[in-house]
C-alpha cells in the first residue's frame, strides 16, 4: 500500500482513443484473438458505461448475503433478520432493533439468491479484463467465518459447473482470452498462517520470504513454485491440489481453514506484436531499399491476486483453538493490520502501516497502489451475529473510500527487439557477401570469355596468312603454266604456218607436174605415185593440225577456268578479311562492355557498404530516439493522470447534476442504478459548465464523426467501445442532435440489425435508450424501424442486462403520444410483455415504466378527444399481467403498475375498457390501490377513477 494514497482514477477510455501518443498507439495495434468473447461486466447500464468512461481506480465493494442454513434456523426462527437488502438501490439496511436501523450504499448488493456467475461478472470480471489489458488486479473476500467467502472465491464446482467460484472462472476467462503462442499464464497458490507463507502447490515449502524490489516496490515470492498453465483442465488440477493441501495443512496444524488466508497469484505475460509477418515484411522492405517499418515489441506483465481471507470474527469469541496467547496474537496480526491500513487509507492518514504484517505487504499494490481492486464482503442473515455483520459492513464502507492509481504494466521487450535487429544485420551482411561472390564469379567468367576470343582471333589470323600464302603460290604456278602454254601455242602456230606454206607450194608443184603429165606419160606414172604420196602426207599433216587445234582450245578452256578460280579465291580472301574486321570490332565492344560492367559492380559494392554504414547509424539513432521517447512517454503519462483526475472530478459533478435535473422516470432507464459517485453539492454552477466545456472539447478533438466511423470497425472490441462512447455522449441532451447529424443513429440501428454479438446488442440498445429520451429522436427511431429491431432482440436473448437496455429503450418510446399506434404495430408492447419472462427486477421495472408511460399517453389522448375505442395496451394483453403482478414486486415497480392501472381506468368514455377492467378483476385492484397504495396521489387517482365511472361504482357495490 503506497503512502501516496489519494489519487484519482486513470481513464481507460482516454487510452483507447487513438492518438499519436506512444502507449495509446501501441494499444490500438494490438490484436486480441478471443476478444469477441469478452463482455462488459454485469451491473447497471450507467455503471458499466461510467466504469469504462471514468474507469475509477476506486476500490469497488460488493456485499453478498448468504442464504439461511440449518445453523441459523433453530435460533432465528422467531427473530427477524438483521439485514434488509434493497438491490435495486444498491443499499443495505442494518437493523439494530425494531426501532432503529442504518442504511449503507455499496457498488453492488447481492441477495441470497444471486448466482455465482452474476457475482463473478459484477465483481471479478472487470478486474480480469484489466489484467488482460496489462493492469494488476485484486479480488478479495472478507467476512465472518461461515458467511461464504470460500464459497464465493474458491468453490471448484466439480459436480455442478454453475457453482464454480471466482478463482476457476477467472482462470477460465484468462485462458480463453490469451494466445499460448505469444502469451504465458502462470500461477502460484499460497497460504498465510501465523505470519508464515506456505506453498499450497508444494506444501513442503514453508516460511517463504517476501521480497520487495527496492526500485519499483514490486513484491514477489521467489521461493514459491510458479506453474505455467497449459489449459483449463490443468488449472483446475492445480486449484484442486491447492485445496487438498490447504485442508491437509490445516488438519496438521490443528486449526480450521477459517484461520488462514489463501492467496492465488496469476501472472499474465502478453506480447503485443505479430512477430513473423512483421519481421518478414520489414526485411523485404529493407532489401528493396526502404527504411524498415519500425514497430516496438511491447510486453505486458500483469498480476491477479485472488484472496480468500481468514474469518474476520474476533478470535476470543470463536475461542477454543488450543493456541497459546502469543500464537493467538499472531493469528490475527495480518487481519488486524489490514484493518489498520484500510482505516489509514480511507481517512487519508499520514502513515500507512503496510510493513506491520505479511498480508499487508503482499497486498501493498491492491490498496492504495496501482492495481484495480474489487472487494466482496460476505454476511449472514442471523441477528445473533449483529456486531460481526456490522463490523464487516463498516470495513466495506471504509474500503470503498480508497482510490488506487491504476497503472499499465507494460514495457518495451528489449530482448526481442535486440534479437530482431541482430537478425536484420546478419541478414544484410550475408546478403552483401553473397552479392560480392556473385560479382566475382561474373568477372571471372567475363575474363575467361575474353581470353577465348583472343585465342580464336589469333588462330583465325594465322589461318588467313597461311591460306593467302597458298593462294599466292597457286597464282604464280598458274601464271607460269599459262605462259608455257602460250609459248607452246605460238610455236605450234609457226609450225602450222610453215606446213601451210609447204602445202601451198606442193599444190602449185602438183599443178605444174599435171601439166607435165600430159606432155610426158612416163613421167606420169612417177608423178602419180609422188602425188599419191604427197596427198597422203597432206592428210596426215591436216589431221595433225586438227589435233593441235583441239589441244589448243582445251588449254584455253583450262586457262579461263583457272582465271575464274583465281577470281573466286580473291573474293573469298576479301570476305575473310571483312569477317576478321568484324570480329575485331566485336571484341573491342565486348572488352568495353566488360570494363563498364566491372565498374558498375564496383560502384554497387561501394553503395552497399555505404548503406550498411547508414543502417548502422540509423540503428543507433533509433536507439537514442527510443530512450528519448521513453522519457517523453513518462511525462505524458503524468499529464494523462492529471487530466484524468480532472475528468473524474467532472464526471462526479455531472452525475450529481443529472440526478438532480433529469426526469426521474426516463433518465433512470439509462442510469439504471449505476450512479456510484457521491454528489458534491457544494460545487458551483460555473465549475460544472466549465467542466462540461472540457468534455465537449475532448470529443471535438477526437471528432464525433471518427467515433461514429469506428462503429464500422472490423475489430469487435473497438466497435463495443465506440458504441459505449456514443451511449455516454447520448446521455447529454446537447450531444444528441450532433450524434444524429453525424449518422450515429443510422449506424447504431444497422449495427443492432447486423451484429450477432450480445455485448453489441446490449450497449447499442443502451445507446438507443439514451437517444430515445428526446421526442425528435423518438420519431426518427420509430420511422427507421428501431422498435421492430428492439422487439426482435428482446425475443432472441435472455441476458438480463441486454433485456434491461431494450426494455428501457422501448419504455422511453412509450412516452410519445404520436407514436402509440406505430409502436403497437411494430410489436413494442408485445416485446415488453415477452421480456417479463426474464424475472429480473431491473428488467421488470423498465417494462412497468413503459406501460405507465403508454397508459398515460392513452388517457391523455382520450382527454384531448382524438383517441377512442379499446386501449392498445389492453388489446395486447397487458392488463391481465398488470393486475396479477401489481402486488408481487418491489415498491418502484409497484408504483409504475399502479400508475398504469389508474390511467387505464380513467378512460371512462371508452366502454370497452371499462368492460375489460371489470372482467379481469381490475375494479378490485383499483379499490386496493385507493386504500393501500403507499403514495397519496396514487390513492387519489384510483378513487377518482372509481367514482367517475358508473360501471365501476356498480361493481364496487358488488365487491
Ligand atoms: P467461509 O469461507 O466464509 O467460512 P464458507 O464458504 O465455507 O464460508 O461457507 C459456509 C457454508 O455456507 C458452506 O457450507 C457453504 O457451502 C455455504 N454457503 C455459503 N454461501 C453460500 C451461498 N451463497 N449459497 C449457498 N450456500 C452457501
Ligand atoms: Mg473459508
TrEMBL record:
Localization in the cell: Cytoplasm, Cytoskeleton
SMART domains tied to this protein: ARM, KISc
Keywords: ATP-binding, Coiled coil, Cytoplasm, Cytoskeleton, Microtubule, Motor protein, Nucleotide-binding, Repeat
InterPro entries: ARM-like, ARM-type_fold, Armadillo, KIF11-like, Kinesin_motor_CS, Kinesin_motor_dom, Kinesin_motor_dom_sf, P-loop_NTPase
Gene3D superfamilies, per database record: Kinesin motor domain (3.40.850.10), Leucine-rich Repeat Variant (1.25.10.10)
Kinesin motor domain mapped to chain residues: 58-402
Coiled coil (residue ranges): 443-502, 545-639
Full protein name: Kinesin-like protein
Species of the source: Elaeis guineensis var. tenera
